[in-house]
């Protein structure tokens, strides 16, 4: 567990170690099957996998980059960038959201397991069943890592979490736990998921009222809570930016007074949350059909 956080070279060596990732996954599967999701070894295994999934998309060997991201449609004949790690236009990135990964292997090995739906479902199961904060945080964090990029893999993982594995109820429950790190990681995961335009309505319907409910009445007085507040605001921004319906949902959840109060903080120390709330307010005002409701 300590070695897996030793930086890019350490992660690379551990990902390449034959049988290591497979053994970690095998152990966790056994723990879940035996209804023992709270033992210390399971926590350690999940934390290792969490660390090995960090920056996975940009650290994959070029051979994986080319084989995993084979596009099923011609994005552009003029685009000569190998893999998906080069500079691409916004239009290309938007198309990548709709480009599925190649069909999953039924028996993934090694590094392939890190983004496979089997492990995604394991993380979601641990989020729902474990009561260990570190296990919950590591499971959420692994999913946060896997959904952090802009290529087909993060968007495919996001679709699996939201639509195929019905993961939103478990993530939503983590918004209301008392442990601040678990809550912060759950919000960060939702922020990543909410970047996928095809999932925004599903996410808004399931968790938007909960996101509003955990917003404080004003800027919180310490930095960690301030970061969580900013992340909630940016998630709400993603969900409402292109949807008047979702903006109305925020309004009906009594979110507007909270966002206004957070935006009016003058302290530089906690400006991150105030800035995020201001960006959200500016976006909400762009829905001209809601101006009357806002004023009321």
Automatic annotation (TrEMBL):
Residues 79-109 are annotated as: Disordered. This is PKP2 protein. One of its GO terms (biological process) is cell-cell adhesion. Its main location: other. SUPFAM superfamilies: ARM repeat. Belongs to the beta-catenin family. It is found in: Cell junction. Keywords: Cell adhesion, Cell junction, Repeat. InterPro entries: ARM-like, ARM-type_fold, Armadillo, Plakophilin/d_Catenin.
């Amino acid at each position: 567990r300590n070695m897996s956080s030793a930086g890019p070279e350490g992660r690379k060596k551990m990902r390449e170690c034959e049988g290591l990732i497979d053994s970690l996954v095998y152990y966790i599967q056994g723990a879940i099957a035996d209804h023992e999701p709270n033992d210390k070894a399971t926590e350690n295994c999940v934390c290792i996998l969490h660390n090995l999934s960090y920056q996975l998309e940009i650290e994959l060997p070029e051979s994986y980059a080319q084989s995993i991201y084979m596009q099923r449609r011609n994005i552009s004949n003029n685009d000569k960038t190998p893999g998906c790690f080069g500079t691409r236009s916004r239009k290309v990135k938007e198309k990548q959201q709709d480009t599925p990964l190649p069909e999953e292997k039924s028996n993934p090995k090694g590094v392939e397991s890190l983004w496979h739906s089997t492990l995604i479902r394991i993380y979601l199961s641990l989020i729902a069943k474990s009561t260990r904060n570190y296990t919950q945080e590591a499971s959420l964090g692994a999913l946060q890592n896997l959904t952090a990029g802009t290529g087909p893999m993060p968007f495919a993982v996001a679709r699996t979490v939201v639509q195929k594995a019905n993961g939103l109820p478990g993530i939503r429950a983590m918004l209301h736990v008392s442990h601040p790190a678990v809550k912060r990681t759950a919000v960060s995961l939702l922020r990543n998921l909410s970047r996928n335009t095809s999932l925004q309505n599903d996410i808004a319907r399931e968790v938007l009222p909960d996101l509003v409910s955990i917003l404080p009445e004003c800027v919180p007085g310490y930095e960690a809570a301030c970061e969580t507040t900013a992340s909630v605001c940016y998630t709400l921004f993603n969900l409402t930016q292109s949807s008047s319906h979702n903006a109305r949902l925020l309004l009906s959840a009594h979110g507007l007074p909270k966002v206004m109060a957070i935006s009016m903080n003058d302290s530089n120390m906690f400006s991150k949350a105030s800035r995020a709330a201001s960006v959200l307010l500016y976006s909400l005002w762009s829905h001209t059909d809601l101006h009357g409701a806002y004023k009321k």
